[in-house]
Amino acid sequence: MCYSDCVSFVNVMKEKEKFSESMNINVKSILEERLANSLGLDKYQYIMSHFKTVDVSKDADFQSTFNGFYIVRRNEEWRKAYYNYFENTKNGNATGTNLLARQMWRKKG
Fold first, then answer.
1. Helix (H, G, I), strand (E, B) or coil at 93
2. What is the pTM of this model?
3. Which residues of the chain have pLDDT under 70?
4. Alpha-carbon distance values, 9 to 2, 22, 26, 29 (Å)
5. How far, in Å, CA of 54 to CA of 25, rounded?
6. Per-domain residue ranges for the chain?
7. pLDDT reported for residue 40
8. Gap between the Cα atoms of 43 and 39, Å rounded
9. How far apart are CA 66 and CA 76, in angstroms?
10. What b/e sequence results for 61-89 when a residue is b if at least 16 CB atoms lie within 10 Å of its CB, and e otherwise?
């Protein structure tokens, strides 16, 4: 290896270092974000921040996120009954909630 090759190598390494510094890569925040996404924490946060403020029996975005996070794999009739029940009970204003839950389980599994 000659002197000019060494100088070229050093110059390339300096350029790479400058590029890395200019990118300002925060490895810790990238790893935290990737881990949170892989665990579905963004979906969980969405569910927890929206379920009190939206009508869960009608909000398709909420239902889709909820179904994905909690792996709800039931037919449309079951989901409609579930989200109506969810909406009626989320503020503690449902009557006969235990009876309704039992009826829902018997009818739709």
1. coil
2. 0.61
3. 1-24, 93-109
4. 11, 20, 26, 31
5. 37
6. 1-39, 46-109
7. 87
8. 9
9. 14
10. ebbebbeeeeeeeeeeeebebbbebbbbe
